[in-house]
Each structure stands twice: as C-alpha cells, then as structure tokens.
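Quick entry between incubations.
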Amino acid sequence: MPCHTKASSPSRWTIAPQGDRCLMVQLGNGMDVAIGQRCALVATALRAAGISGITDIVPTFDAVAVHYDPRLFGAASSHKNLPIQIESVLAELGGADVDSRARLVEIPVCYGGEHGPDLADVAQQCGLTPEEVIALHSGTPAYVFMLGFAPGAPYIGIHDAALSIGRRETPRTLLPAGSVAIANRQTMIYPNASPGGWHILGATPAVLFDPAREPATLLAPGDSVRFVPISASEYEAMKRGQP
Amino acid sequence: MSLVVLKPGLLSTIQDLGRHGLQHLGVPVGGAMDSRAHRLANLLVGNDENEATLEITFGGPTLRFDAAACIAITGARLAPTLNGQTIANNRPLVVRQGDILAFGQREAGLRAYLAWHGGLSLAPVLGSRSTNLRAGLGGIEGRALRKGDVLHLNKPLPAQDLDELAGRLWDLRIYLPRALVAQPRPALRMIMGAHVSLFSEEALANLFSEPFRVSPDSDRMGYRLRGPRLALSEPVQLLSEAATFGSVQVPADGQPIILMADRQTTGGYAKIGHIASVDLPLVAQSVPGDSLRFSEIPLARAQQLDMLRETAFTQLYESLAPLRTLLGR
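Done. Structure below.
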C-alpha cells in the first residue's frame, strides 16, 4: 500500500513559528502515506543533526514540529539561526522520501466478541460482513503516522476506503488497555484504559507502552504495522505470557 | 535523612523541568507548571535548575523534617510557617531535625514550589522525576503526595554549626532580577497562531477586548476559559499536529483552552494563538474564577523577553556563588 511519488513530490517545505519555542516544518497538506513517510524521514534527519537548543522533534501527518528551549542554545544557535539550521538539513536531505530503516511490526489482534464490541456495528455501517472488515483491516500493512493522545498511542492508516467510518457519536468513557479502534480510515491502539471515541474492532495483548522498557513504546512514527488476527484463547495465552 | 508527610495538601506533586525528547512517542513533557518559580527555588538552595521540587497547589502540605536541610519556597504565597512561625518566600532557610513546615491561607497565586538543597532521592522515569498523574509516571509512584509518605533527602545538612550556617545564609544579599519576579499584567501576551485566519473577525475582536474566566475544570493539562464564543469562519477538519506549552486551542464550542504542562503532545483543534513563554507563569498562578485578558505580541518581542529572562537566570546563578560555597557546592 505505501505509495511512492518520488519524483513528483519535490522536497518542498515551509517553516512557520508556533509560539516562541516551536517551529513547524510543514511538508504537505493532508493525510497521505508519502507525506507521512517524508515527515518521519525529516524527523530522523533533524534528530541526527543534533542542533543545540532543540528538545523535541515531533512528526505528525503532514508536518514536523521542532520544539526548542533558548536555555539550551549553544554558541552557534539562536532564534534567528534555528530556521536556517533546519533548512540546511532539509536541503541536504533532498528528495529522498522513505526511511530505508523503517520496520514492519506485527500486532496480534483478537477481533470481535468481548474484545471488539463495535465490530458488528462497523460491518453493518460499512455494508460488509465482520469477516470482511477483519480481512480489510489485517490484509494490508498500514503506516504509523504519529504517536500522540497518550504515551505510545499510534495513529495508523490509511485503511481501505471500504472502512470509511467517522467517530462514534458518543465517546466511551472507558476503553480497556489494548483496544484496537478505527475512525476516519485510521486505527488507534489505546495503550492504557482511557476514554475514547473510536469504534473498537478488537484488542491486542501487545504492550504499547512500558516506561521500564527500552524503547518504551512498541511503535514509532515511520513504522509499518500488520495486524494479525488471533483467537480469544491465543489472546489469553499471550496476555498470560507477559511478565 | 528524610522528611515525613503529615498532611499531603490538596495536590502536591514532585516536578522538575519535564520529560524532553520523547514527545514523538506520545510522552507528554509535564514538569513544573510555573517553571520560573521552580527554577528560582532550586537556585536559591544551590541546586541545578532541573532538580526535583514539590509543586504545592492551593492547600499546602504539612511536613516534618527528620534531618536538617536547606530549603526555599517560591511561587504562590501560601502562608508558609516553620514550627508556627511565618517564613518568607524566595529565601534559603535552614530547617532542623523535628521542624514542621506547614502552609496557611492562600494569599496570592496558586502554585508554590519547595526545593531542598541536594534534592530528593527519587529515580527518574524516562529521564525525569516529574509526576504525570494521568499516565501514572514519575515522582512518587506517578501519584500525588500522600499522608505517611517519606521523602529521602540526598544531602541533609550536618547537624553541627547549623546556627552559624543559618546566620550566614540570612546575611547573604540576594537580589532577584526583575525578570524573575512574578509581576501581574493587565493582559497575557499572545503570539498569533497559524490558524488565526480560520477564525471570524468577531472572534478576533472578542479575543482582545473581552475578559475570559478561568473555569474550575482547569488542571495541569489545560486551563479552560469561559468567555465570548471564539467561532471559526466556517467549520474545518484539521489533522492532528504537535502542540506546545501555551498553545491556545479552540474546540467546536468556541471556548478556548490554554495547553499547560501535562498537555497531550498533539491535538486536532484550531489554535488561535500561543501565550508568550514569559507569561506562562502568570497562567499557572491564576485561580479558577480569575479573569484573564489577552493582548497581541510580535514573535520577535516574545523571544527577546524569553532571552532576557534566561539572562536574568544566568545573572542570578552567578550572584549566588557565595550561597553555593556556604552549602559546600
């Protein structure tokens, strides 16, 4: 599914301030895997550049936020210099658009039943059978655009157009940890029990966030994910197998 | 070597300057809501700025020291007392074994910071000792202070010659640069955001002419304001993007939210602007019911003020060399 628009996606960007301690590098407009991959690549390159003063580099769907702290500016950096330093990293990067080190991570999902209370409803609203929903959701690898909402919580997409469905009208006040939910052709996995407005297709026994683990998150922006259907008994066995 | 929590106070949490470098993994920065006061407290006891302090919200805790220590309290004026005697904010003070630190009626501000010379013995989680209550990370088991908690001091003071040390600390002339003292302002200064053109002219006019009231459901994640509805010219669907400390986002109901220390790393609401970093302590010290106003500030001016504050911190740090010598650092 990853689309490649190498030659036609020139290395264009705009850099705009977001307040007095953040620069937003805009790399496109809209949800598109090629733009998302470009964001992950730019984030990696900026991280490698080690520009002093920068505290966080956050890729999202079509932009990369560069947070900085003037307290940490080195001799060579200043408010004026920072955009120039970022530009030079972008210029050096040229038109490359896929990180060759990107990983494919398999995530087991127990679909439907008690773990996926919205599966039947999603199937009905999309005019599909539950089996077709599972096949569409797990059949093709999808892309991790960004992590947000909570530590380790990924925004994964873009799913088949047949799975187009908005958010639930009424968000649930509490979703169990590991809930795998869809909305707007994306999947969110809830690392911890939390409120949520997406439709729950299933649950994963995988641990998305563990502060004692290195790295703490299972996924990172730029990864690809393949959902692997598992049975309820496999789910239980995998849960028990965790420390 | 420790201090004991006799009463936890309304909401007392361990904070430092936050968890940086992990926002791309969805990990919020967190850290002190009023980082100016937090840094000041640390400098006044000879610590690094990032050492953990206790952020004390509104109703303060009661703490018993089981070892001598050098402490300082900054930020909100919450009527601190030591063994019943009023003590001052913004001064290094010697406390002795058995002393009881308590707080009284709130006089000004909302959040006070208590720093100890040498800091507390707490393991950092993901590079920070800051407590994130929502994620249950950092500080003391990711939670607020509780009655009976025992906090271990890294560097209690030797029991001998405390009177002499206290006297010499008292004789220190500590000059706080103007940029480091909380000064009330008629309006919080805001840098306009990239989404400003999405808002109606009426929304922008109201933003700068009308007061906004701090709602009671404000917390460490965000300050929710109530005022005239800030409407978009037309409904838009925005993709989630990164947010910052001080971003002013406006959900569909038109009531702005100032994103604060424990904000989520990303958000999908339109951002009308961003509070200048130098004015964020004023937000952190405002109380539900307070009335806030906004004025516009050019980015370059906001950055200049931010740098001036940094320069002031550097000056203060340098001027406190005698303090650090006294404390053996």
